[in-house]
């Protein structure tokens, strides 16, 4: 993963900006320039601005002796704050700013130039500086003009730049708005949902209340907010405030397909199997309109696309013990595929969004007979109905699930007394035993099948810590493959197919950017404390049914090997606060909470 992804729309806007930077005219952009000159240097300071933000290109002309390095200084007149920079190391202390050369552009011959740029925010007036110093020596006086305040039709998305004579060996770590970074989590803060944070802090979770969690848009009404709660605009506005001009990633779960979750009643949705038109026009279109608002162009918006949907088409739509009529219907009518393709294309067209498709978990798709067909299904959906592989930045595994990120005490290649651990009842001939190895293996298959080599993987670690007194501290006994695996596995579920409100689970690894090769981030997509489903039938207007896998007294079905569910009792509806489970997650956190 090395090359930022740039849309055609971004390239077109960049071209417009470079015209402005070189002295041309672009009606949609407001510009100004300030210059100063002495016998040693002159500075051209070119601005393109909109409502509360601006992009600046600075060109230094050396009219004195040749330089081996340079450091340009100036002070802002107002409250301008620099948020991003390129081709220089730019630092700010109050109103004072310094910009120093990078390793590749320090040498400037007599009469030569050096160029760098930055983005910034402001309120009120954005007056250009007119006094500069170069290596501590004043460049002299000059005049500047105050840029007009009429906002552009479309804010600039790529800064004006003049390429250095020697190309940089390392690209800018934070590109300007509109140019997609390779990994949206690197160098960015995570959005803290104040509603979840308040619930967590008020129920003994002060130690994790400042962690970033995803916002679930699980019905049309959630876009505007339900029961007085925050809607999407409110969350995006809050994200802008939290960002304070710095990179910030906000995660949104896109989760309202027609006939949603065809194999699990607890999370059935509001739309019927044929409501694809409503999904597109009443759900995806309004979300895309909000995400595309220029007010949010500085955010990195990660869309988690439709958990469980495409994996269900592969494994539960006919011909297997776990198949359901509902999944067969959705495979036959094609509305899962149409909906996901539409979401990818619509949201992928925006300049600051990152789409991650849900890819189940290792205990669902880890067998060769499931993984290969799943990768092919993902590619099919990403290349039809207007979508392209460029609309997919990566995939997420273990969404709202409990599988261990890494099993430290046994590997799928281990043998016990000549018998492979794949023959154990727990592994059951799977090719993977944990999420990280599965994520990497799946990624390799996806790239082989046609996805970009830049795709990254996310792992939901919100509830897969499995700490507490029951956590193993070493491998199991080598009496048999079963004693070896069961004695050493940190995932303490009765069966790996159990997914609802699992007893004994704990908070997992905290959200972390780039924790391992091919992994973009560990994330908390399922907010800890929110129920997976009611343990008994509860009347509601949210379209959520009762699934026996959430009933602790149920004996199981084909999808969990007819084992007990391991679910906690007295659980509320999916997405509602489940205090008893939250307390257990806190107690069993791993790493432990300090």
Would you kindly provide a written description of the structure presented here, covering whatever features stand out?
- It is a single chain.
- The chain is built from 12 helices and 22 strands.
- The chain has helices at 8-21, 194-201, 232-243, 276-291, 309-315, 325-333, 335-348, 362-365, 368-382, 435-448, 481-488, 579-587; strands spanning 30-37, 41-49, 53-62, 71-75, 81-86, 89-93, 96-100, 113-121, 132-134, 137-140, 142-143, 189-190, 215-217, 248-254, 300-305, 353-358, 394-397, 415-416, 419-420, 456-460, 512-516, 519-523.
- The strands form 4 sheets. Strands 12, 13, 14, 15, 16, 17, 20, 21 and 22 form a 9-stranded mixed sheet that branches.
- Helix 4 runs parallel beside helix 7 (335-348) and helix 5 crosses helix 9.
């Amino acid at each position: 993963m090395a090359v930022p992804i740039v849309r055609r729309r971004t390239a077109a806007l960049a071209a417009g900006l470079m015209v402005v930077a070189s002295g041309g005219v672009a009606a949609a952009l407001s510009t100004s320039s300030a210059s100063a000159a002495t016998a040693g240097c002159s500075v051209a300071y070119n601005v393109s601005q909109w409502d509360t933000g601006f992009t600046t290109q600075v060109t230094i002309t050396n009219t004195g002796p040749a330089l081996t390095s340079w450091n340009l200084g100036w002070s802002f007149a107002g409250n301008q704050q620099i948020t991003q920079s390129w081709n220089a190391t730019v630092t700010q202390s109050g109103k004072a700013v310094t910009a120093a050369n990078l390793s590749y552009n320090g040498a400037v011959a007599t009469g030569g130039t050096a160029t760098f740029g930055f983005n910034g925010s402001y309120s009120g007036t954005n007056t250009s500086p007119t006094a500069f110093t170069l290596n501590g020596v004043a460049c002299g006086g000059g005049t500047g003009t105050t840029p007009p305040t009429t906002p552009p039709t479309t804010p600039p998305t790529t800064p004006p730049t003049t390429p250095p004579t020697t190309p940089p060996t390392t690209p800018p770590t934070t590109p300007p708005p509109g140019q997609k970074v390779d990994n949206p989590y690197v160098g960015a803060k995570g959005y803290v949902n104040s509603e979840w944070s308040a619930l967590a802090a008020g129920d003994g979770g002060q130690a994790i209340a400042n962690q970033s969690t995803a916002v679930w848009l699980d019905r049309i009404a959630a876009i505007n907010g339900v029961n007085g709660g925050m809607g999407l605009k409110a969350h995006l506005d809050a994200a802008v405030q939290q960002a304070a001009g710095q990179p910030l990633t906000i995660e949104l779960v896109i989760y309202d397909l027609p006939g949603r979750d065809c194999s699990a009643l607890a999370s059935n949705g509001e739309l019927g199997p044929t409501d694809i038109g409503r999904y597109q026009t009443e759900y995806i279109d309004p979300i895309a309109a909000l995400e595309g608002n220029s007010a949010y162009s500085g955010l990195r918006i990660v869309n988690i696309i439709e958990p469980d949907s495409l994996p269900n088409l592969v494994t539960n739509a006919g011909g297997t013990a776990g198949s359901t009529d509902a999944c067969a219907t959705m495979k036959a009518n094609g509305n899962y595929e149409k909906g996901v393709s539409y979401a990818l294309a619509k949201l992928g067209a925006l300049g600051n969004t990152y789409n991650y498709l849900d890819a189940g978990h290792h205990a669902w798709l880890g067998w060769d007979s499931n993984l290969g067909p799943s990768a092919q299904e993902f590619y099919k959906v990403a290349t039809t109905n207007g979508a392209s592989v460029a609309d997919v930045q990566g995939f997420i595994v273990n969404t709202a699930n409990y599988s261990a990120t890494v099993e430290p005490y046994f590997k799928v290649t281990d043998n016990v007394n000549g018998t492979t651990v794949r023959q154990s009842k727990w592994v059951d001939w799977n090719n993977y035993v944990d999420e990280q190895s599965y994520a990497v293996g799946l990624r390799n298959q996806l790239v082989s099948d046609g996805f970009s080599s830049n795709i990254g993987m996310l792992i939901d670690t919100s509830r897969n810590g499995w700490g507490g007194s029951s956590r193993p501290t070493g491998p199991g006994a080598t009496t048999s493959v079963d004693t070896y695996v069961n004695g050493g596995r940190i995932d303490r579920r009765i069966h790996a197919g159990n997914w609802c409100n699992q007893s004994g689970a704990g908070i997992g690894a905290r959200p972390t950017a780039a924790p391992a090769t091919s992994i973009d981030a560990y994330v908390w997509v399922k907010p800890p404390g929110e129920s997976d489903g009611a343990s008994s039938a509860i009347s509601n207007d949210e379209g959520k049914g009762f699934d026996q896998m959430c009933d602790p007294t149920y004996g199981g079905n084909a999808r969990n090997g007819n084992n007990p569910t391991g679910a906690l009792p007295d659980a509320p509806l999916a997405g509602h606060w489940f205090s008893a489970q939250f307390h257990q997650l806190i107690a069993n956190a791993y790493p432990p909470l300090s």
